[in-house]
Amino acid sequence: MTMKTHALSLCAALLSFMGIVGCSSNTSSPTTDEPPTRVGSLRFIGEQRIAFNTKFQNTSVGGLSGIDYDGSTWFLMCDDAADSNAVRFYAASLTITPTAFSPVTLTGVTTIKNQTGSDYPRRPSANAVDPEGLCVDRSDNTLYWSSEGYRPAPGGGANPINGRIIANPFIHQIRRDGTFIRNFTLPSRYNMDTLSNPPVGPRNNGVFESVRLSANGQAVWAAMEEPLFNDGDRSTATNNGIIRMIRFNKSTGQSTGEFAYSMDRLVPVPNPPGSFFVHGVVEILPVTDTTMLVMERSFAVGGTPDYNIRIYEASLNGASDVSAINNINPASISVMRKRLILDFATIASNLQGRRIDNIEGMCFGPRLPNGNLTMVVVSDDNYSTSQVTQFIAFEVLP
């Protein structure tokens, strides 16, 4: 987005660290990077940045909207819609200890190809894409990625950058060399419907910011960033927007359920009033088959601070399957329950210049010597000199 982001259950114990003891299922220490069964809190370890307009293998590094880790390599989705370089993802090396986070080293870049094996065209081509989410499937060494698509500006006007592109969002599976494997089948409600009045379907730049494998590795999850028009208003200072989490069968690529998630209200206040703002879900991270971490990101022009980032644990237990409902009414369904894990405002004092930027991606990383997993988040600098490409590392405490 312009303002912008494995899968098996834990079967071994988390050992104690600094007096904190994790739950266990046997007496052996975990040696893999499987997700935890519970995330109690996150302990800040360190921050690193990549300098603005860094060049790597003839590309401009920035716009990092997604991150994942396969046990040895880190993958970084770039949301450049072929405006400066080809649609791509990066490979990187990150080193994290209990007390330090070393500088990020880029190790490779891969161009993502379309279904014909060609590069995606730049905007305003009708076949342009808006890359956002990325995840790796360790079972077959493939990747899944998402495009938000494009919808013309309200009122029939042309977007200054996108023109009058009408492109549906999608989720693709690709090989590690960037070549296409298959396309997932999206329910029709996610098509960019520009004819209905009042409008229905996705908002421009508010679609699949995140795509993730389920904890058991049998499903693929995608999360809407903002509500569908037909599901109600956006999150504002006075309204809680409702977005959908979509579950797909990994084998068939077909949707098997949709669940409603109630977002927070807008935290930063635009200044002056009426200035641009956005609040949405920019990343999800399954923990168990019924729980996932959800990252909400607020931005408001002139806000103090301009960005607000929060990570929640959300539960599917008791949540309504809304796949048969075209217009969500929160009063008639049960939304996913959520519990606050981290408000980034509480770690601002640890960051360079107390800056919390446009964080859009998060994933689990390797284990520390005490057995606890790490987590890394990354920001999308929007290719702006006023923003930063920011990596923050945490220890996952049970």
How would you describe this structure to a colleague?
With 398 residues, the protein is mainly beta. It has a single domain, classed as Tachylectin-2, Chain A, CATH 2.115.10. It contains no helices and 22 strands. The strands form six sheets. Strands 1-22-21-20 form a four-stranded antiparallel β-sheet, with no helix packed on it. A four-stranded antiparallel β-sheet has the order 4-5-6-7, with no helix packed on it.
Number of helices: 0
The percent range for strand residues is 35-45%
Number of domains: 1
Poorly predicted ranges (pLDDT <50, ≥5 residues)? 1-31
CATH architectural designation = 5 Propeller
**CATH fold-level assignment:** Tachylectin-2, Chain A
Q: Note the gap between the termini.
A: 32 Å
Helix proportion range:
under 10%
* Biggest β-sheet description: 4 strands, antiparallel
Q: Give the neighbour order of strands across the main sheet.
A: 1-22-21-20
The ordered H/E elements are EEEEEEEEEEEEEEEEEEEEEE
